[in-house]
Amino acid sequence: MSGADDQGRTGGTEQGRPAFKRSRSHFADRITAAGGDDWPVEAGRYRLVVSRACPWASRALVVRRLLGLEDALSLAVTDPVQDERSWRFTLDPDGRDPVLGIRFLKEAYDARETGYPGGVSVPAVVDVPSGELVTNDYQQLTLDLSTEWTALHRPGAPDLYPKAHRDEIDEVMDGVYRDVNNGVYRAGFAGGQEDYERAYRDVFRRLDQLSQRLADRRYLVGDTITEADIRLFVTLVRFDAVYHGHFKCNRSKITEDPVLWAYLRDLYQTPGFGDTVDFDDIKRHYYLVHHSINPTGVVPVGPDLTTFLAPHHRDELGGRPFGDGTPPGPPPAGEGIPAPHRT
Q1: Which of the following is catalytic: 46, 54, 200, 268?
Q2: Distance of CA 205 to CAs 123, 201, 211, 305, 330, Å?
Q3: What is the CB-side half-sphere exposure of residue 162 using CA atoms within 13 A?
Q4: Cα 208–211–214 angle (5° rounding)?
Q5: pLDDT value at position 35?
Q6: Active-site residue, from 46, 109, 138, 185
Q7: How high is the pLDDT of residue 117?
Q8: H helix runs in 4-119, sequence order
Q9: Whole-model pTM?
């Protein structure tokens, strides 16, 4: 089964039909400041491979932008439409990544472990000198970018995982991951009615709780943007375009919740968030790759995404988006999203 992150697997049954279960990251090495038994942080050594369609990869894109790691950690962007050989570099000249020299991300996985039987997922970090995959641990990757790569952060980079709030951030992220990030997949790939309805209820129960939490505060934890906001953003920004219809999470749209809709617009208009979102890639991936859900391969034209740029008035709640830091500059040359893909 293909998913937007290719991390999904099936396991368990409901009346003989498979239920969705997300697999753990098989390659969980870390890149740390100390190195030691881990891989050492080193500018220019590693390449971040993403699909802009994938919400898990989008986390890494946002964090990399906010922290100003573009020069230290190069970027490879795959075609949003996979084939049986996994994520492919058909957006690059000759269909080959210009730095890694490979046509498919699977080649980096094979260089790390011959005959690896699992799925090929993004985000992935590849060691450029050896061509080997380092990690596909999407949960830990962005936390390490915030805490282990500090020597390479830009001046004015925000603290996305402040020590004083980590317990609360972790608690909020756990609920967001279980019921929202992963919940929409559990609904979309449910093996039967009971599994689907259970996931559906979890999604909207958590969204209602988050709406209440954000009614009188600008961000999820404290008064600045944290990793928790980034993890919620990547699902909210895809919700109306994909999850509402394609994954049958159709009780209501994000645009119909005044709090969550204003919160989403606030983040989307914040440098480092909306300028990493490619709606064309997102829709083409979900609607063209998930053949079991959308066998016709028809990609919807809507919704009207220009409304993401409408005033949100969330600044009236206070808060300091970047804390004591500053916003990132514009995306580097070659990394900007074409205007027709953003709205």
Answers
A1: 54
A2: 28, 6, 10, 25, 37
A3: 16
A4: 155
A5: 87
A6: 185
A7: 81
A8: 55-67, 106-112
A9: 0.93
What per-residue confidence (pLDDT) applies to 174? 98
Average pLDDT (51-57) is 98
Write down the pLDDT at residue 23.
57
Q: How far apart are CA 152 and CA 134, in angstroms?
A: 19
Three-state secondary-structure class, residue 75: strand
Spatial CA neighbour of 224 closest among 178, 309, 164, 151: 164
* pLDDT interval class at 227 (50, 70, 90): very high
* Sequence letter at residue 116: Y
Q: Look up tokens 């968030």; give the residue.
A: 273
Q: Is 69 left (phi over 0), alpha (psi -120 to 50) or beta?
A: alpha
Inter-residue contact 94 to 176 (CB < 8 Å): no
Backbone angles phi, psi at 223, to 5 degrees: -115, 20
> What six digits make up the tokens of 161?
């995982």
pLDDT at residue 208 greater than cutoff 60: yes
- DSSP H or E segment with residue 267: helix 258-268
> Is 185 considered catalytic here?
yes
- What confidence tens digit (pLDDT) does each residue in 141-162 have? 999 999 999 999 999 999 999 9
CA 92 to chain centre: 22
CB-based contact 34:260 (threshold 8 Å): no
Does 249 qualify as catalytic in the annotation? no
Residue 303 CA neighbour count, 13 Å, CB half:
17
